[in-house]
Amino acid sequence: MSAIFKEKIVPKLKLESLTPSEVKALLQVLELMDTTDTDLYKNAVNSSKLNGVTTEFTKNTAQHVYFHPKVFASEQEGLELVGSWHPLLQKGFFPDEKSTTKLVEFLNFSLSYLQTDAVSEDLKTQIFQVLKMLVQSESEASLPIVRFLVDRIFDIRDVLSSDFLIQFCIRYQILNETYAVVNSDKTITKFPFKINNDFVQHFFDNDWRKFITQFHRILPVGRVYVTGAYDLMLPWFTTDLAAYYYDNLEIIFEAHKAIKERLIFGDVKSLELLNLKTAEGFYPLIAALGPKVWDAGDTLLFNNRDKDIPQEQLDVCYLRFIDWLTADGGSNFYTEAFKDYGKLIFTENTAEALPLQCIPFWFNTCHPETGIKNQTETYNTIFSDLLIEERQGKLPMMRFDHKDFQMTGEFLIKNVFQTKDNLKGFLHGFTKESIKNPLNQFLVRTFYDAREQLFNLYNAEQQEILQLYLLEMAYSTRDVRDDIRKQNLPLITKTLITLCVEPGNYSRVNEIGALKSIDACVTKICNTFAGGHYINEARPLELNIIQAWFNYLGDFYYSSRQEAVWVSDLLTTQGIRTATYFNDREDDLSYFLDKAITRIITFHRKCKLKASKNVAFGKISSEIEVYLTDFLGTLKKDKLNVNTSKYLSDYSQSSIADFSNQTELMTAIEAFYNVHFKEEATTETPTAIDNSQTITIEMEVTEINQKYVDAVLHNLEHYGENGNYDTELIQPIDEKIEEFKTWLLDDETGIQVRMGQALYMTLLDTNLAPGTEQETYGNLCRSLFVHLVKGTQMAASYGMGLQAMAKSGAYSEDLTTALLQVVDDLNA
Amino acid sequence: MTQEITPEIQDQLNLSALILKKNYKNADLTSWSGFDLENDMHVKQAKRLLSLFGIKSGLHLRNSLQRYENGQIVSHNFEKLASEFRMMTSSDFDAKYNAEESPRTKGIYKMVWKYRFSLKKEKLMGYEMAFYIFQMRLGHVLGYMGTEELILRLEEANDTIKSTFSSWSEFHRNVCLGDEYVLGATEQDVSKFPGTATLWECYQRLHIEHADWFKTWKK
């Protein structure tokens, strides 16, 4: 190793000019360099002058050892010489300033040669170990050597040399620990390799701008998949560098550009630089994505952001991202940058980190009518994962105005959708889509969240539109996956229930109540809702509600208590209330009551008859009994007409009714019956028909009067029902036909027409045909009909009708003959 | 739970056979609904019909049934017109008939005039009850009504029909009339779209197995 030293340097050493202590140092050098067999050494070591002298390695000595320009003239020799210094440096004998300057000159000069194969790997290793020791030495040599390295590394005009140095510096960790600077007072300060003011002062003329420019310039340079300048400098990054960026926005943009280029050319991400943090915890390079218009590269950079960056620094960036997605009609969607990186910004995020502005963006892009078809599916998936899934119907928290913001339906309706004046137009496009569309699912959540406020947000007409929209959505849940249905249907139903509070709109109430057919998950709320509307004690009772009650009694019965379940409540709680309602009404409602009671009893009978088949029927009949007891017990006893009272009384005594244990109910029914039948006084005036029904004709007919005619008419119209073929009643009128006709002239109530009609029907009644039991009654009617109709306007048309009937073939021969006879008589 | 169709129930179901066949040519008269629940095309057809009738749920179905049962679909209108006509002379009627312009209404007038007396009691109840049964069966396809309720209602519909009409043909004449009242006169028309049949045509083609079950009328 020391051959070159022995050959070239030793002969040149002149001990004469040196002090004894310097000589002693030189002798040590010779020992270290393993050249003790030279004459020079032998002479000197034998000299007695050195006894007791301390060793001193002075500048003079250093130059003797290190300053040899002539040797440096040959690259190979020079390099070998440098390589041989290792033992000296280890001992602490460092070159002085003059020698170092020469060395740097030589290194610059021989750098190209050093890279060639002519220099053995061993020698290269030695040289860089020497350089490392020099850099780390606390001597005048340190700074110039570091400067040399830094200069040449940053000099990308000679990119090969730069890379060569970088590789060796990294391999031997030369620029890693510290370097030393000799101050003017000869003291020495050590500095770490960190980018800060000292660093810039030592290597870049105290010019940050110059450093940054060179720094950015070198970033993209280098070979692919091999460590480069970035890796070398990685340990140098400091908060000072971050602070410098923080103060210079334009420079950050340059940095972005450099990082993007590095990404493009080197396929490396430069994460540490991108996520550089100031001492205050600010990430200037990421935050600076906020104030600029993005391109695809920025999307990429942003996707590489550190996950620990505080949310406030990111808010604006997300907005820029959305701007980028919206720009140029959304064409950035189709870029690689979006597919590979942009999408991740959404999918690897949570709604809590994203800005509220995502929602208008989503709705605009995926709108069923005005959106961008090709993008809908992707965004719908992204946003339904972010905003809908796993949220149990709640609206998510998002970022708005640099704060965490709990979205509310009200806020969305007012500020995002802005549908106050145009709800119909807004919903139009969505109504056609089913609940399958995530936008509709989100809208449903919005309305659900705002449900109490909807009354303030929309006028009545709009609320109606909203209800129709929600109903449409509800029915569309039939055709979607189970989980979507089970999530959305309850929300829709609850919103509808909130909206539908106005009394009176029973078709809407029914429609909402009917949603339970769609899925069992809403059965309960639907039933409660329908019950709440039909039985609402806070609202005045009305006839149509009571009518509806008894209509639903049918559904309740047929479905074995599965449908219209509120009827059960109705029967057990509303009896007294119903009765009070009728008691307070002054007009005659006996007809209505008759219908109602008949219907209730009909179902009671049905239940009793079927009681053995299904326990539900037994339950219904006992509930009906509760109702009847309450109702009839409270109802004023003059409210029912005679028929109803009789009907009730008859039924109550039948074995089917089985009221024997219902003493209270029986008493009430009896009381109604007694009003009409036990007491003489019939104060109330039932309708004419009812009155005439009760007439028992045993009177001696002496003259034609109203009462008698009514009785006849009633018999003619009703004989079929009660089987009362009262020939004796009708006989007198046939006898006194002329008197009757005269009487009719004064009649203004249309008795003649009614009578004609009733008689006409008897003609066609096969039960009255000749040859039957009731022939007499029939003959009487035929005769009366001819007398009454003949010569009137109606005669011709009745005649034609009868003729047609006779020829229809529907009647027996006897009756046909009789009919034709009547026709003949009429025409005679 | 689907119950077995006893001969008695089949008899009751058959009361809607004509209407069912008219609305769905491939209907299987011997099943609960007439539709094959396993066959998507069948179910789709049933859905189409239900939405045509505006039936979206069990509640809609039951409301509709009630309207048929109460005669609100045709009988009330028929009776109103018939009672008016019963009071009219033939010349009054001619005047009213000629004054009417719509051929549809004219057809109805003509029909009601013809039957103003003979259908005083029955009105068009036969048609309505047949439809009542048909709609229940249709609703069964989508599960709006279970077989138990179906049985319960069928039984009563059967009672109503058989206590009103005295024979299979009398009942069906009423069904045809009701259909004509609702849809207008349906004379055979070869120019119309193939595959659509008038109710009368359906009636002619209707083949009911064990037709002897219908002998027990007028209970």
Notes on the structure:
- The complex is a heterodimer of chains A (828) and B (219).
- Chain A has a two-stranded antiparallel ribbon. In chain A, strands 3-4 form a two-stranded antiparallel ribbon.
- In chain A, strand 3 and strand 4 (403-406) form a beta hairpin.
- Chain A has 828 residues and is mostly helical.
- Among the domains of chain A are: 555-686, no CATH class; 693-827, no CATH class.
- Chain A is rod-shaped and about 185 Å long.
- In chain A, helix 19 packs parallel to helix 21 (336-347).
- Helix content of chain B is 60%, strand content 0%.
- Chain B has helices at 7-13, 17-23, 40-52, 58-69, 75-86, 90-99, 103-115, 125-141, 147-164, 168-183, 199-205.
- In chain B, helix 4 packs antiparallel against helix 8 (125-141), helix 8 (125-141) runs antiparallel to helix 9 (147-164) and helix 8 (125-141) crosses helix 10.
- The radius of gyration of chain B is 18 Å and the shape is elongated.
- Chain A binds chain B through residues 475, 510-511, 513-518, 551, 554-555, 557-560, 563, 610, 614, 753, 757, 760-761, 764, 793-794, 796-797, 800-801, 805, 810, and chain B through 56-60, 62-63, 66, 86-91, 93, 117-118, 120, 143-145, 148-149, 152-153.
Largest interface between protein chains, with number of residues from each side? A-B, 32 and 25 residues
Label the overall shape of chain B. Answer: elongated
N- to C-terminal distance of chain A = 161 Å
Helix run count of chain A: 46
- Helix coverage percent of chain A: 55-70%
| Structural class category of chain B | mainly alpha
What is the C-alpha radius of gyration of chain A, as a whole number of Å? 56 Å
Total count of helical runs of at least 4 residues of chain B: 11
DSSP, total strands of chain A: 4
